[in-house]
Amino acid sequence: MNTTQQLVIVIIVAVIGLYFWGTYNGLVRLNVRVDEAWSDITVQLKRRADLIPNLVEAVKGYAKHEKDVFEKVTTARAASINPEVLKSPAKSAKAEGDFQSAMKSLFAVAEAYPQLQANDGFLNLQRELSDTEDKVMASRRFYNGGVRELNIKIKQFPATLFVRRLGFKEREFFEVADAAAIANAPEVKF
């Protein structure tokens, strides 16, 4: 084997090594982005969960006889921030749908009390909740975008031949079973 052939072999090995190095580092970067995006979702869900007790208390003052609605909201709130639920996009999506359903019930009760809807504290809580819902939706989009990029890179040839052996796996999208239930932030009509 002459020097030219040895040089060609070294270059080929170097190119393959650089490809593996670049692919691995790219997957690590995408994986961290997806983890960060999931963390953003959980932060926003926690922020929303922190607002709910204040909103429930504001409505309770006007609608004392609606105990089952308040219990449903409280249960859905607890489920939406349960650490076990937050480990899985599928479980989180189900809890999200249940939460949205409970919030619709709460806002339906609130609609029956015009004096509540004129209350500044209630209106501020409602604005905060709407803002938080927007942030939850933005976090979901960011997460799903990261998952899309990671999953594409994992499935692309030739990376698909070896990346799973390196410990990389496709991630779940944050999809809600009942998309209509969460299509819009909770709405209160005045």
Q: Rounded to an integer, what's the Rg over CA atoms?
A: 24 Å
Give the name of the CATH superfamily. LemA-like domain
Regions with little confidence, pLDDT below 50 for 5+ residues: none
What percentage of the residues does DSSP assign to strands (E)? Answer: under 5%
Order of helices and strands: HHHHHH
Mean of residue pLDDT? 81
**CATH architectural group:** Up-down Bundle
Secondary structure tally, helices: 6
Bulk shape: rod-shaped
List keywords for this structure.
mainly alpha; 0% strand; 190 residues; 6 helices; de novo design (two linked rop proteins)
What do you see in this structure?
It is a single chain. The protein has helices at 3-60, 67-80, 89-111, 114-117, 120-155, 179-182. α1 runs antiparallel to α2 and α2 runs antiparallel to α3. It has one domain: Up-down Bundle (de novo design (two linked rop proteins)). The mean pLDDT is 81. Helices cover 73% and strands 0% of the residues. By secondary structure, it is mostly helical. It has 6 helices and no strands. It starts with a helix and ends in an 8-residue tail after the last helix. The longest helix is centred in the first third of the chain and has 58 residues, at 3-60.
